[in-house]
Structure formats: C-alpha cells, structure tokens
Amino acid sequence: MADCSALRENLPMLLTESIDPARRELTHEHIESCEACTAEWLAYKETWNVLDELPEVEVPARVKQRFLAAVNPQAVVAPVVAPAPAEKADNVVPFTRKPAFKWVAQAAAVALLVGGSYFAGQRTATPEPAPMVAQQQELTPARINSVQEFSPVSMSLAETRVLDASTLSPNIEGRPDITNVKFVDADPSDDAIGVSFDITSRWTVKGSPNDKSMVRLLSYVLESEGQSSSPRSDAIDWVRQTYSDPQYSHPEIANALAKVLRTDDHEGARINAVDTLKTLPASSTQQTREALIEALKSDPNPAVRMKAVDALAKLAAAGERLDPAALDMLRQKAGQADENVYVRVKAAEALGNIRP
Amino acid sequence: MNSIRTLSAALALALLVASPLLAATTKTSKFERALPLGMAGVLTVRTTTGSVEVVGVDEGGVRFTAIKTVTAFNTDKEKEKALLAEADRLVELREAVSADGRNALIHTLAPAMSGRGWRVDVRYVVWMPRTADLRVEVVKSQQIRVVNMIGNVSVKNFSGTIVLERVTGVANVESTNGGIVYMPQQRLGGNVTLKTVNGNIEAIVPDGIGFQWAAEALAGDVRSTIPGVRGRLSGPAFRGSVNAPGGPTLTTATVTGNVFLLRAGTQAAAARSLRETIPQAPVPPSQQQPAAATLAASRAGRRDMTQQFVQGRVDFATNIGDISISELRGDATLSTGAGEVRLGTVTGTCRVTSLGGPLELGDIFGLLDARTQAGDVTIQAARSGGSVQTGGGIIRLVYAGGPTSLSSAGGDIIVRQAASSVNAETRSGDISISVDPGAKTQRLGAKTAKGNVVLFLPPRFGADVDITVITTDANATHLIESSFGALSVQREQIAGGKTRLRASGKINGGGERLELFAEGGGVQIKTQPVPGR
Hints:
The complex is a heterodimer. By secondary structure, chain A is α/β, with parallel strands linked by helices. Helix content of chain A is 54%, strand content 8%. Chain A has helices spanning 2-8, 11-15, 21-33, 35-53, 61-71, 73-76, 88-91, 97-123, 212-223, 232-243, 251-263, 267-279, 286-298, 302-317, 324-335, 341-352; strands at 93-95, 130-131, 161-164, 168-169, 179-184, 193-198, 202-207. Chain A has a 4-stranded mixed β-sheet, covered by helices on one side. In chain A, helix 10 packs parallel to helix 12. Chain A is elongated, with a radius of gyration of 27 Å. By secondary structure, chain B is mainly β. Chain B has 4 helices and 42 strands. In chain B, the strands form 3 sheets. Chain B has a 19-stranded mixed β-sheet that branches. The chains are: A alpha/beta, B mainly beta. At the A-B interface, helix 5, strand 1, helix 12, helix 14 and helix 15 of A face strand 38, strand 39 and strand 40 of B. Strand 1 of chain A pairs antiparallel with strand 39 (487-494) of chain B, so a sheet runs across the interface.
C-alpha cells in the first residue's frame, strides 16, 4: 500500500499530462496491476470529465496562490534571482490559466467529496442577519446566474454565494482582504445592484443601493487598497453611475470618495473620485469639503486640482456656504502665480459666485 | 396696445401681491465715541457689513460716529417687530483700547445674518492720527475709504470698493470681489500692494513721480496713460518702472479684472494696453503657443470662440477663453492659455493646444495633435491617428483609426476601439485598450508606472507578447492574467525589494509586438465577448 499512496500522488499530473514519461509509465503499470488504484484512477477521470462540463469561473487569486504554493513552493514562493539560462526551465511557471484552474478544481472536488455532506446540511438552513464577513460562510450559497438566493442547490465550483444585503449587518468586522471585485446589474429593470468579490470564496451581495449594508460594502470597496488586480477606477465609475441618481444619494458614499481623494496614491483613482464627487447629489459633507480643499491645496496632479476647484465652484454656485478655509484656499489659488492658469481662473470664478 | 395694457395689469397685480413681502421695518441708531490712541498707535476697524471711512488728522486720539441700521422682513408685523428687536440686540458695536494705549479696536459684533429675516448695516466715520497705523477688515462693504494717512494702512474685504486717497505710506490692500482705487496725490512713501481677484484696480498718480511697477491681470489687461512706463511683459505679468527706475514698488494684481495706471487728470478710457507698448519677454517653452496663433493671442483678456460651422482653415488663439466649433471643414490650429476646447467634426488635420483645460474632440478625420497641460482629453474618433498628451488628466479615445500615441502625466487612459497601433503611457493610472474586433494583429504598447493594464483582444488576435510587472509583493501570482495560453512567466528580485514578473510568448501563433508594463498593479489580457452570444 505504500507504493499505492506514493503513486496516487501522480494521478492528478497523469490526468493533466504534466508528468514526465518515466513516471507516467510507472504509474500506468501500477494502475493496471492494482485494483484499488484502478478504481481511484477511474474516479479521478470521471470527476475530471464532470469538471469539464462545468462553466468556468475565475479562481480567487488567494486560493490559486495558496494552492500553487502547496503544489510547488519553490516556483511560487521563493523568488528567483537572475536565473541563468540553464536554470530557466526550473524557474518558469507554465502560464496557462486553465490548467491552474483545473488543479484547483481537482483539489476542490476532492474537498467537496469529503465536506459535501457537511455543506449539504448547512445549505438548508435559513440565514440570519450576521456580521458581513465573519459569519458569511454559514449562509446559504446559490448559483451566480440564478440570483435566487438561499435555494438549496447542488454544490459546485461554478457557483458564487449570493447574499441579500438586507440580511447582512452593515458592520464589516476587521479589514477583510476582498479582491477581484465585479459589479453586477443582473436586471436593469429593477433597482437592485450586486457586488461580487473573492474573500475565502466567491460572494455576491445583492440589494438596493440604499441598503445600509450595500452602502457600507461599497464604501469599503472604494476605500480598500487591496484591489490591485482590477482597475481602481472601475469601482468609482460604477458608484458614479449608481449614486448620481438623487434617490440613492448617500453621504457615506461621498465620504468614501473623499477618502480616496485624500489618501489614494493612484492618480487616476483620485481624478475619478473628485469627478464623481461633483456629480453626487449628497456630496457636500464636512469631509468632502475638507478633502476638496486639501486636494486643491496640495494634490500634485493638476487635473485633480482643476476638478476640486470645479467642485467647490459648483457648491458655491448652488448657494452652499463655504467656510473661511475654503474661501481662503480659493483666494490663495486665484492669486498663486505658479498655479495652472485654468485653476486660477476657475478659483476666481468660484469666488465671483459667492455672496457673503 | 392691448398687450401693453395686459402687461401693465399683470405688473400691478404682481406688485399688489408682492407688497407685503417687500415691506420691512427699519431702526436706525447713532453712536458717537472717542478713544485714546497715540500718534504711533494702531487702530483696527473690524465689521461684517456696511461702510467705513477713515480720515487721518494731525492730533492724537480716535473719534468715531457709527450709524447702525437694522432692517427686519416679515409679513406678520408682530413677528417683524420681534425680529427687529432681536437684530438690534444681537448686533453690538464695541470699542476697546489696550492698557498701554498703543492699540485701539472698533468692532461690530454680529451673528451670521443669512436666513434670520433681518439684516444690518453699520456706517463708520473715524478720525484718527494720520501717523498711526490702520487696519480695516470688512466682509461685505459698500465702500471703504481711507483718506490722508502716512502711517501703514492695511485694508481687507470680500466685496465692495476700496478707495485710498492721499495715502502715501506703506499700503496693503486685498479684496476678493471688490475694486480698488488708489490716489496718493504725491510721491509714494513706501511699497504699495493692491490685489483683488474679481475687481478692477485703478492707480491714479501725479505726473512725473517715479516708482517701480509690477502688474498682472491674468484674464484681463494692464493699461496705462503714462508714457514713461518701461519694462517687460511676460504673459499677463508686467515688471518695470514708471518715469524713473528705483523707488518704492507699486504692485497691482487682479485675476479677472483690469489694471489701470493713470496719470492724474486722465481717464481710463484713454489708457493703452501695455501689450501694444511694451515688448514681450521670451516665453518659456512650456508656455509657448503655436506660432500661427501668436498674433491673435497677443490680444488681452478673455476671448471665447463659438462657431457652429466653419468652411476652410481656422487659426485661433486666446490667452483665456473657451473654443467651441461644431463642424469644421478644413484644418484647425487652435490654442488657449486656459479654457475648454470642444470640437465636433474636423475634416482636416487638427492641432489643439491648451495650457490648462479639458479637450473634448469629436470626429477628427485628419492627423490629430492634441495637448493640454492639465485636464481630461476625450476624443470620439482619431481616424488618422496622431498624438494626444495631457499634463494630468484622463484620456478617453473611442476610436483610433491610425497609429496613435497617448500620454498622460497622471490619469487613466481608455481606448474603446483600437483599429490601428496604439501606444499608451501614464505615470499613474490604469490603461484599458479594446482592440477592434476585426483586427488580426497590430502593435500595441501600454505602460503605467502605477496602475493596471487591461487589454481586450479578439479571440483570433495574434501577437508576440512581452509583459512586465513590477511589484512589491514577492509572492504575487495573480498580477498577470491572460485568457490566451502559451505564455511563460519568469520572476526575479530587483532593487528596492521589488519583484519583476515577465511573461512572454506567442498568442494565436504570434504577430505584431504587444508590449505591456505595469508597476504597482497588474496586467490582464482578456478575450472580447463575441457579439450575439
């Protein structure tokens, strides 16, 4: 049996044809001579065929990373310093998304076989409002396409767990690292929106833009810096499209954008944030005004300063009372000889609209 | 005739209806006070609204009269009376003198008046030692007038005219929306600074006195009736001398208004622009405008251009102003020092330069050369390709029909349909390029020093791929993603504790070079969704 366990480790590689010829031959010989391993091999192949039928989904980056690290720690974890040409073969990680997915799928399939009954038992439970991250694993999963929450369906890797924002507590515990954020509007005719993301697995939170949990989640997404794999501006663009509608205006969204404007070192994101602040009906909060003044004062990107002065001018034109700090900053910018002329003129025009 | 009658009747009715709303109750109080102040003391006058007149005299001590007028508005007469009493109580006139007698303060204490249903106006007339220093701060003034002072004078307001008459010492005047008139009536005894954002400045000086003069009217003009003005103009700024070099400096600066330096006895209408009389200093390369446009740009002040349809070539330049042309059948050379440029269709070549402001360009058939020092650039179609640059801002190009180069010093770059080669580079921002669905192969380059690169390619697009990602995450595995297989990734540590990931290979059998670089982000190559599926 010792031979069996050693040779069974080769089965996934045999399946993906990523095994060297000598070991392939040895493994095949063993399978032909061992009844138990033949059964195991057939089960693998059957699972494999089933997996091929499933729709493809993005594998969460962290899961992929952990799996690859477990499979080949040297290739993934240990960085290679200036590889010599002769060593290149060992240092090159095959860059094909699909096999990586399949490996993960295989591992997960095995995990499913073991844990399936446990999950099956959990799936029928009715979810209770819960802290969004800490307890979400206990909530009912459903297929991503169905968006029919909490219906007991068979478990597969092709699914995302869909949660209704109204069933979630708006408190996000800790600072979970959510990645691969996507925005979903499955049915444009209704007012529901959805946010899909990876955390420990794929989750979609669906609900009204006004829902407190949805607002909190989107604010968290905006403020989160862990989205390096997807364009930062996508989230901001999406927020602009959704929350520029006055019925969904929310100061927390504006405050989250203000934070992006103040702290994000990605200039494209800051430009988008200030641009979006201009369009949001509930954008005038103490935090947003301070962020605009700060941006106008010291943002190195002239486009950010231009849009900040435009936003302040818009507030002034709308009759908003600007505090002395805002007025001083507009005055300073209007008279600052080394400032971009457009910014100076816009600052002057903004001041011209103010009636003390 | 009937219509006049109808109009008159409507007007009368409107007045009848509105009359209760226009009614107001007013109360006026007069105060007369005196304060001790030495000939070298400092007087501060601070009020939120009203007017201030300060007259310098040859004796110690301060005397002032103040007329406080409070006005209440309400359709309910009882409420109006209560409001009037409230206003009278809340608006207080105070004065104070420091223990050593060197500082005196005259102060109006008033809460913010907006939405209270009443307003207040305080008119001060102050007599003070002409050798003492004076500080006046008024938020909203009808007028501030300072007469016959030789001590230092500092005046600041938000709106309302400021007049300095026979003030010959050091003076510092700042306004936001008000105009400034300065009439020393004899030679300057110290440096004088007059600054406003949205007002005009008039300095009327006696004939023959000499001083240094620095002037700027960013969106306006600097004009004078004095023939002895000499110096250099650099854009909107002048620096030189009047009549003779040396002496105190008169600094005059406004953003949207005009500056006039007038010889006593002459009128502003007779003043000539310094742009006509003073040579221009060489302009730094970063601020140079296209040569063809220089003549038009020499005209001062804000100048906009709005045209629906133009047949033939257009050369236009303005120092400050917006440019808008809906359709241009010909070539365009357009330039603005600060303003927005909006173009619809341009059938010829299109050269647009802005020193600050967004560019919004439509369907450009000829070669495009669009540059702004700051602002977003949006282009519907660059059919022959070209070059687009911004010193900071987002570049959005819907259709690139020819080889196109896009560069932002900070901001995202988005190309919706690249039917030809595209090279995009940004210092900080994401780059997203969708290749024309019919393209089999074409050269593409994208480089961001901070951000992500996302490329959408047709399923059968062939290319030789070279991807580089620099990251501080030594364990990162998800920063390069491709929907096309057959790429290999190499990883190495580089200086600064960073890791370089390089992915290369051929997709769909290879083709033109596809060179992508991202630092502080990742690279994704995705297949475009097939229409109809």
